[in-house]
Structures are given as C-alpha cells and as structure tokens.
Write a structure and sequence with these properties.
The protein is mainly α and 719 residues long. It is built from 30 helices and ten strands. The protein has helices at residues 53-62, 90-101, 125-135, 147-158, 197-203, 215-226, 228-233, 235-244, 249-260, 267-281, 295-303, 307-316, 326-333, 337-349, 365-378, 381-406, 430-453, 457-473, 477-494, 497-513, 517-534, 537-553, 557-573, 577-593, 597-613, 617-633, 637-653, 657-673, 677-694, 698-716, and strands spanning 8-9, 25-26, 79-84, 109-113, 164-170, 187-192, 206-210, 323-325, 354-357, 360-362. β9 (354-357) and β10 (360-362) form a beta hairpin. α17 (430-453) packs antiparallel against α18 (457-473), α18 packs parallel to α20 and α24 runs antiparallel to α25.
Length: 719
C-alpha cells in the first residue's frame, strides 16, 4: 500500500485522519459550542423569613400553568405587583417566593433593581432592557438603540419561553411597562412603594399591598433573632421594641442583631435607650420624611458603632452607585483593603449593609439615605469632596488600567495621580479587564454623572475617554453616546480644549456606529479643530479618518481619499504607527471601490506589515480580510484563501462574530470560484448561521448564494 499523502487547508478544531484521499481537504468547521445556560439572576434568598403566608399563597395561585392558565384554574395572571411602605419587606417577599418557584421557569429568571427610590438616579428602562436582552443571549450587535425597539425585541425573545422576571424598586408605571413579558408562560413580579394603579387597570396586574408585620409576626421575628427565652422573659419590653421599630422587618432585623450581641442586657434597657434616641430626634421629624419611622432605630444602631466604623458607614453613603466593591469602599474611606474588609464585615453583621456577592456590598435604599444624611451632617464639605474625589480617582485609574490591557493603542491622556490611599489592582488579561468593566458599568455611568454634578469636571471628561473602548466593544451604544455627551459638557465647564477634542472624537465614533452620519461628521470636524488647538495629533488623525469613513459610505470616494491621505500624513509625521496602518487600510478600501486593485493590494499589504509589526492582531485581521477580497477580484484565489483563513483565525480569537461571518462568506465565494462547491456551500452555511441572528444585511445575499447553489446542484443530477 502506498503512503497516504493528505493535505488540508483551513482553520478547524477537529481533524479526521483518512487513508489515501485524492485532492485537498479544506477544513473550515468549528466545534459547535453547547447552548448557553439560562440566566439565573435572582439575589440570595432572604434568611429568617417570617410568615406572609397569605401573600405567598396568592402568588402561588397566580403561577402560570402549562395550559396558559393560573395554578388556580382561571385565566393566567402573569403579572403581580407588590406594593408597600419602605422597609416593609417587599423585596424579601418577592425574592423568597421567586426562589420557591424558580424550577418551574425552565428558561431562566431575570432580576433588576430599578432604583426608583433613593439618593441616586433611577435606572433607565432602556438600560434594564439592554441588560435583560444580553442575559437572554441576544448578540449585542442585534440590540436596538431605542427603548421601543428593545422592548419589542425583548417580548419577541420571551415568546414561548418560561421566564420569571422580578423588577424591584419601581417608582412609576412607565419605568416598568416595557419590561413586562407578553407571553402567558412567563411571569413578572414588581415591587414598589406606589400602588401602580395603571398596571392594575391596563395590564390586569394582581396587586398585593404589603403592610407592616402584625405585632405577633414582629415578635416572632425578634424571637428568631434574639432567642425565644429572652422574649418570653420580657414580653412587654419585646412588644414595645416591635412598636418602636414600626413593625418593619428591616428595622427589626437591625435591632435584633444588636440585642443578640448583648446577651446580658435586658430588653427593658434597650427600650429605654431607644426612647431616649427618639426623643433626641423629634425635632428632625417632618412630613413626608421617608426615614421618620426608622431613623431612631438606625440612629440607635449607628451610635453604637465604634467611631471609625460609624465614619466608614456614613462615607459609603457618598458613593454614587447602588453597590460598591471592597476596593472602591477602601478608596472612598481612605483606609487599607484589610481594614475595609473588617469594617464591611462589622456592618454586614449589624445588618447595615448587605453582601450579595463576593467582594460586592450594597445598602437598602433607606439605609443609604440615612448614611448620606449622616455624612452631610457630620463631615465638612471639604471632607465629603475628598472622599468622593478618592473614589472617582479609583474608578478613573482602574478604567485606565483596563484600557491599556484591552486596547493598548487607543488614546492615552494625562490623568491626575492616584495617591497612596487609592488601592489599585490592575487586570492582567483582557478577560479580567472586560469583566471589571462589566461589573462596574452602571457605577461608571453614575460616577460620571455625579462628578459632573459636584464640579469634578476633569474626572467627568476623562473617565468617558478611558472607558470608551469597553462601551464600543460591548455595543452599549446608548450608554457610549451618553457618557461622551456628559464628558463634552464637563470638558467645556472645565475649560479643557483637550477634553472637548477627545470626547468629540469619541462621539463621532458613537454616532457613526448608530448610523447618524451627519451628527457624526459634525463631531469629527469639531474634534479635529479642537485637537489642533492643543496639538493632540492622535485625535486629529482619527477625526480626519472618521470623516473619511462617512464620505466613503455615502459614495464620495474622492473626498474620502483626500481625508484618509491627510490622516495618514498626520500619523506618519508624529509616529502614530497604528493610525498610519488604519489609514492605509482605508485608502486600500477606496482604491478597491474604484477598481484600482493593484493599488489597493499594495496599500493593504503595507497596512498588514505595519499592524503586524506592533502586534495589533485584531487590526491585522481587519486588513487581511479586504486584502483577500482584492486578491479574489483579480483571480489570485490561493492568495485570497490564505488571507481569509488568517483573518478567520484572528477574528475567532477575538470572538468577533460578525467579522467571522463575513470572512466565511468570502471564503465560500473563493471556493465557489475554484469549483470547490461543497466547501463553498459549507462556508456559506456557517456564515449564514452567524450573520442571520445578528440581523446583518449580508445574510440575505449569503442565503441567495446557498439557494442558487442548491438549484445548480439539482439541475446537474442525472435523470
């Protein structure tokens, strides 16, 4: 038997060895990943949950059944609204019941805190929809930028699925309506201090108004916290403690924890202490004060804290976001990481903060309001500013460290020093950096807004610039635009022409991606003008290239060539290597569009060499892809195949699905042109499987090619 000589070309993760095979084998397959797991976003279940059996039973009855009716047999009530006063236990009830029934919802559970009440801004419903769609594995590129489009897609994705949606802390009907499923096998639970009458009238929500605990339930919660013997020994004192806690579970848990840690004190002594505090605070009570019922309990527990712990607690109230990491907490308080962990442990044990995930902490909104109240009363304005400034600087430098890892050739700007009391733990990999940005995304938005509001305009324009790449890469289009609008406003308030230039260039990119070309063009032009005033040649070059991209898209090739040439000259003159490579790539595209293929290939080859020289592999893929197209057009199919296989490999490394799909489509064209029709069909099919879910306009052309090839195959079969 002769020696088998098999040749393969392509990029495959699995290879089959065969005997003698005549002809080449082109392997372009990719191992199909397992389906992603359903989202499971519920917070931890509440501990020491007391009673509420009547409301739990009503929720059980509203649970959708397989046939689209409720468990009680009537029409399915797929929407339940739990209303009640702050601190009454609405969230605990909703989450507790959701954990009881989550097995029924086989396609997942979604949770969002709309932050409708509290010192910070409420969560925008468009942001909540974006988060839900990503959790449901909708590709980021497919998520619309407008709220109505997101809501329509969200309802479509949920059709036929069993998903439980918990929307917490809603202040208005408009804040929740777009988040409601429109399929009877899904269910939404909403918590709010408002009665949300519009949901009852229009959507048929089943409203459950949660009152404070009954005296018996409140005492049962105290028994669970401090022990039945102590309650039985002083029943009147226990009843008085429950009354002074306004029968609110939040206050009862806090007071119960403190009593449990003082086993030798009597309940009567605690009643006397609390009565004294209430008397001292009487002057603070005003109408419509959300803290009026619990301020005495909070104050009593707060005053019992050691001095440094109490200060740490109130400084946390200055944080803009709804949750905080250990490192950010250390920065805002100006203490070490080990000390921060110890202080957070103390506050968690006292039920003054919650620890929902590793190294993440958050306040109940009432406690957050109280902490901010104490900070404003006990810290001098300059001390408050210093604390905020430290945490702003922590976010700024962590974002900068992430930028350096993810996009090392992006725009670098001078930043204020971090200082020794800002604990930085830089990411070492792209995955770590992206994960940090994802965890802190909403906090970054809040920090940028707060810094601008409190006059830290330098931070408010710098933080959007160093965070820019993350929002673009993850396709958070609306957030991307909004941070730079704030950044531009802050730069103008600060009188920073550099800040204007940097944010205008970023805004140009954002508007270009959102296909608002005229607005993008105006931002690029303004950015170029501002950059020349401060000699920022990076911004100048990329603003010129951005203008060229828009002119190229609308068919004004001559103007695009002129702008790309100007950009290249700026980059060459000032040694901005990646910029020169990207300008050559754009020049090549224009020459290819005009049919000057030899010139286009020369520009592409130069671009690949420059970008490969600085090891910018993602950009190498961007240049190799059109280089392959140009080779394909002049009939050099071997070279086209080589370039597209390189681009495919690199795009897959960076998980750039859209570009992977486009490259597979181009590979199919090359295979088809060389008579390798089976390979062409496989490439097109894989391209379609990627491009179609993304809603990419190229999917239709690929589908037509597949159908055309099928028709040709059928007509060529022998009768």
């Amino acid at each position: 038997m002769g020696t088998a000589h098999n040749e393969s070309s392509g990029d495959a993760e699995a290879v089959v060895q065969a005997g003698t095979v005549y002809g080449g084998i082109h392997l372009i397959g990719r191992t199909t990943p397992p389906p992603p797991p359903p989202p499971r976003q519920l917070p931890l279940d509440a501990t020491r949950f007391v009673n509420r059996e009547q409301t739990l039973n009503r929720l059980d009855a509203a649970l959708p059944a397989d046939n689209g009716t409720s468990a009680a047999g009537g029409p399915s009530m797929s929407l339940a609204a739990i209303a009640g006063a702050p601190g009454v236990g609405k969230t605990a009830l909703a989450v507790h019941w959701a954990h009881r029934v989550r097995r029924w919802f086989t396609d997942g559970d979604l949770y969002v805190d709309m932050r409708g009440y509290g010192p910070g801004p409420a969560l925008d419903v468009g942001q909540a929809l974006d988060t839900f769609l990503r959790a449901l594995h909708v590709p980021a590129e497919q998520i619309p930028t407008d709220t109505e489009g997101r809501a329509a897609l969200y309802r479509s994705v949920l059709t036929g699925k069993r998903v439980l949606v918990v929307v917490d802390n809603v202040s208005t009907v408009s804040q929740v309506r777009p988040l409601l499923p429109a399929t009877p096998t899904c269910m939404a639970i909403i918590t709010s201090r408002s009665r949300l009458s519009g949901l009852v009238a229009r959507e048929g929500a089943s409203r459950m108004t949660l009152d404070v605990l009954s005296p018996e339930e409140a005492i049962a919660l105290l028994r669970d916290s401090i022990g039945g013997d102590r309650v039985s020994a002083e029943p009147q004192a226990a009843a008085e403690l429950a009354r002074r806690c306004a029968y609110l579970p939040l206050a009862l848990r806090i007071i119960g924890e403190r009593i449990a840690n003082a086993p030798y004190a009597t309940l009567a002594e605690f009643v006397a202490d609390l009565a004294l505090v209430e008397h001292q605070l009487d002057a603070l009570t005003v109408d419509d004060d959300e803290l009026s019922d619990v301020r005495a309990v909070f104050s009593w527990s707060y005053q019992a804290l050691p001095g440094d712990t109490a200060r740490f607690f109130r400084l946390l109230g200055l944080h803009a976001g709804s949750d905080i990491s250990v490192a950010a907490a250390a920065a805002i308080a100006g203490v070490s990481l080990p000390r921060t962990r110890n202080l957070l442990d103390q506050l968690t044990a006292a039920h003054l903060v919650q620890n929902p995930a590793r190294d993440r902490y958050l306040f109940h909104d009432l406690l957050r309001a109280y902490a901010l109240e104490r900070a404003q009363a006990e810290e001098m304005p300059e001390q408050q500013h210093q604390s905020r400034r430290r945490v702003y600087t922590w976010y700024l430098w962590m974002a900068e460290e992430g930028r350096r890892v993810i996009l090392p050739y992006s725009h670098a700007i001078a930043l204020p020093p971090a200082g020794p009391d800002v604990p930085l733990t830089p990411p070492s990999t792209v995955a770590e950096a992206m994960a940090w940005f994802e965890r802190e995304r909403l906090n970054l938005l809040d920090i940028i807004r707060q810094a601008d509001e409190f006059g830290d305009h330098d931070i408010a324009w710098q933080l959007p610039v160093v965070s820019d790449g993350f929002f673009e890469l993850k396709s958070y289009w609306a957030d991307w635009r909004d941070i730079h609008l704030t950044g531009l406003r802050a730069a103008r308030s600060a009188g920073s022409r550099l800040g204007e230039a940097a944010n205008l260039r970023c805004l140009g990119d954002a508007y270009w991606r959102m296909e608002q070309r005229e607005t993008a063009l105006d931002c690029y032009r303004q950015g170029a003008n501002a950059s020349r005033d401060v000699n920022d040649h990076w911004v100048e070059g990329f603003s010129l290239r951005g203008q060229g991209l828009i002119h190229e898209e609308i068919g004004q090739i001559e103007e695009a060539l002129n702008l790309y040439g100007q950009a290249r000259e700026v980059f060459r003159r000032h040694g901005i290597t990646r910029g020169e490579g990207m300008s050559l790539l754009s020049l090549g595209n224009c020459h290819r569009a005009r049919g000057h293929l030899d010139t286009a290939i020369a520009h592409y080859q130069q671009a690949v060499a420059i970008l490969d020289g600085i090891n910018d592999q993602w950009s190498v893929a961007w240049a190799s892809y059109p280089l392959g197209l140009a080779y394909q057009q002049i009939g050099q199919h071997d070279e086209a195949l080589k370039q597209h296989q390189l681009a495919l490999k690199l795009f897959r490394r960076f998980d750039d699905r859209r570009c992977e799909g486009l490259t597979l489509a181009a590979l199919g064209d090359t295979f088809d042109a060389t008579g390798q029709h089976d390979d062409a069909q496989r490439s097109w099919q894989q391209a379609l499987e990627i491009l179609d879910p993304l809603g990419d306009p190229h999917a239709g052309a690929v589908r037509s090619l597949i159908a055309q090839a099928e028709r040709a195959r059928r007509t060529s079969w022998p009768a």
